[in-house]
Amino acid sequence: MRNYICLSQSVFQEDAFSLVPLRDQDKFEILTMRNEQMYHLRQAKPLSVQDQEAYFKNVVAKLFEENQPTQLLFSFLKDGEFIGYGGLVHINWTDQHAEVSFIMKTELEQDFFAYYWEIYLSLLDKLAFDTLHFHKIFTYAFDVRPHLYPILASRGFKEEARLKDHCLFDGQFIDVVYHGKINNNVTFRKADEFDVMLYFIWANDPAVRQYSYQTDPINLEDHSNWFKNQLANDQCFLYVFCNHIGTPVGQVRIQKKEEYSAVIGISNDSKHRGKGYASQMIQMATRDVISENPQLAIEAFVKHDNIASQRAFEKAGYQLKQTLEIEGVLSNKYTFQK
Fold first, then answer.
1. Is the torsion defined by CA of 138, 140, 146, 147 positive or negative?
2. 101 - beta bridge partners?
3. N or C: which end of the chain has fewer CB within 10 A?
4. How far apart are CA 2 and CA 61, in angstroms?
5. What domains are there in the chain, each with its CATH number?
6. Average model confidence (pLDDT) across the chain
């Protein structure tokens, strides 16, 4: 099996399914698939055997030896059997984005279209985001398969553009639809004394103050004293989260109240909201604390109108336990316990 020299990992596995670098043995099945599915491909005419032989010899073979190829192509296998192919195409190494490409065997589409697309996109995340650390992947598609769009949405893609009457198709102009997905992988570290201003800026963000139980702005002297005390407190866990390029995107604080309980709080940088970070941050911080304190029940108190935070805690595995009033404000109490 050939490997791409630009990749530290060339095979991606999920249960019975795998992506392996494009195999020469699959080229004629790919030829058949592409000719059968020209209606949704940017392919001007049917391919011949000679076309396919030349493409694999003159284009595909060279991709494996390039440090920054324009495309990375894979065979999609189930239990070792070829069922489709695709990868990342039109790769922009400078801006760290690429277009998603995928087709499956025509005879599989009726029964397995959604299922195989979802698994394929999950595997492609591992390539694009975990291995290449790309910023974004996207689809650019003729508007002839609307049943694909819910699948893309389920995997975190958002419709970002619709180019009206953009392409001539079967004698009429049709839209082109663009869906994009941003890399929302995050890492964390424990906060230190150099993070005092970062926490101060986040704490005084208007949206953070709005959803806090103490809504007044915080002055720097009070904050600095509080932050210093929290760092010295072994019952308090302060985390700073960064995105895939190392930019701080938010914080999580978990404060032990007593031996068996703790309270969690979270805030995101205003420039990085709506990107899917919050639930990951909650989940990762919770796991880190629970790994050392398995007896803890961690509680979150969220204002009833803070829908985004409620969804983030629910997605992170917290359970709604109670609706109550806190300082006269209707709130939801969520709990996580191992």
1. negative
2. 87
3. N
4. 9
5. 12-182 (3.40.630.30), 187-336 (3.40.630.30)
6. 94
- Which pair of tokens denotes residue 102? 């995928």
Q: Range with the lowest mean pLDDT among 177-181, 227-231, 274-278, 300-304?
A: 274-278
Give the model confidence (pLDDT) of 242-275 as tens digits.
999 999 999 999 999 988 999 999 999 999 988 8
Ranking 115-124, 202-211, 282-291, 292-301 by mean pLDDT, the lowest is 202-211
The residue type found at 294 is P
Its pTM stands at 0.80
Rounded Cα gap, residues 321 and 334, in angstroms? 6
- Can you spell out the DSSP letters for 80-109? TEEEEEEEEEEEETTTTEEEEEEEE-GGGH
Neighbours of 43 (CB within 10 A): 12
Among the listed residues 12, 200, 154, 32, the one whose alpha carbon sits nearest the alpha carbon of residue 88: 12
Instruction: Please say whether the dihedral angle defined by the alpha carbons of residues 306, 311, 317 and 321, taken in this order, is positive or negative.
Output: positive
Look at residues 102, 107, 244 and name the one whose alpha carbon lies nearest to residue 179: 102
- Give residues with Cβ within 8 angstroms of 165, minimum separation 6: 173, 174, 175
